[in-house]
Amino acid sequence: MKMTRREVVKLGLAAIPAAGLRRLAAEQPDSKFAGVQIGIIVSPYNFPSIPLPADAFLKTLVQLGLSAVEIQDVRCEVYAGAPSKPREGYSGSPHLTAEERAAAARKQAEELRQWRLQNTAAILGKLKTLRRMYEDAGVKIYALRLANTTVEMADAEYDYFFNAARVLGANQITTELPEDPKLSQRLGDLGARHSIYVGYHNHLQVNAHSWDTALQQSKWNAIQLDVGHYAAAVSGSPIPFMKEHHDRIVSMHLKDRNYRSHGAANLPWGQGETQVKDVLLTMKQEHYTFPAGIELEYKIPEGSTPEKEIENCLAFCRKALS
User: How far apart are CA 266 and CA 260, in angstroms?
Assistant: First the structure.
């Protein structure tokens, strides 16, 4: 009897090696609808019920039916044997003072830096295995998300990250849009060296010209457009910006927010002012090929779970593009 993917999951997906998912599932995950690739980025800090290590996270993606992902450095590095505990280091202990938390964060950053530089070949070998694991399960890693980029970071450490993106099969590194043009120039130069795009992500600090300097500095500097944050920031539709700059957008984040002039609330999809459905239809009509990643940021309703809300967001995309 042919079994669906969900039935396989219910029979014990957690116990199935990720490399065996393709053989055991009756259908591969497929979140490409009408030519529009829907992916996801899931904060490992906001939703602890979703596994942190990249191999365990893969099982969640397959269960949810997602075939593309922007994966964070922390997930990959925990899988590869990183020496620290990123969730604790990120959130900080409530029993520590601000100064103690800052000191702990500096110590953790230095431990990670030393681990990366002293074990690069071994780490990249593990990431190569991780890529095969994802591809065998039918999931494409399209972006490697970096939590921190600074002017002070050494070229050797940046080279490590660009090599990690390449090994994972990603065509882009994503990070926050820098305030310092020296950093975007440097990242653009590194992108050119490695033939990997750097997609700069926005929060509420942006307007239609916020990426101008970075885009002029290098063809490898690009836009990762968060349509919800953008709509809130400018109190208007993100679609005109999409159409004007589609050739420099390498990926997007999908969420639904009200305009800043109306409070900028993060809401369940279809309840805000971002025009998420119209954004998706524009991608379909204009044949945009960059992936659009679900980013779950609204408050989880009582009685629901992050996984259920991700399913709701994916269903929203499927219906909008049908």
Answer: 11
Residue carrying structure tokens 């593990």: 126
What is the DSSP annotation of 233-245? HHTS-SHHHHHHH
CATH at residue 192: 3.20.20.150
> What are the helix (H) ranges across 119-174?
120-136, 155-168
**Residue segments in the chain with a per-residue pLDDT below the cut of 70:** 1-26, 84-94
Q: Strand runs (DSSP E) across the chain, as ranges?
A: 32-33, 36-41, 68-72, 140-145, 172-176, 197-201, 221-226, 249-254, 256-257, 266-267, 292-295
**How many domains is the chain built from?**
1
> pTM of the predicted model, to two decimals?
0.89
Q: Residue 99's pLDDT is what? A: 86
Look up the domain containing 248 and give its range: 5-320
User: How many angstroms separate the CA atoms of 80 and 161, rounded?
Assistant: 13
- Residue 247 is classified by DSSP as G
Pairwise CA distance, residues 56 & 288, whole Å: 31
pLDDT at residue 85 in the model: 60
Q: Which residues contact 295 (CB under 8 A, 6 or more apart)?
A: 40, 41, 42, 43, 226, 228, 253, 254, 255
Amino acid 205: pLDDT: 94
**Which residue reads 């702990």 in tokens?**
104
| Of 222, 211, 212, residue with least CA distance to 187 | 222
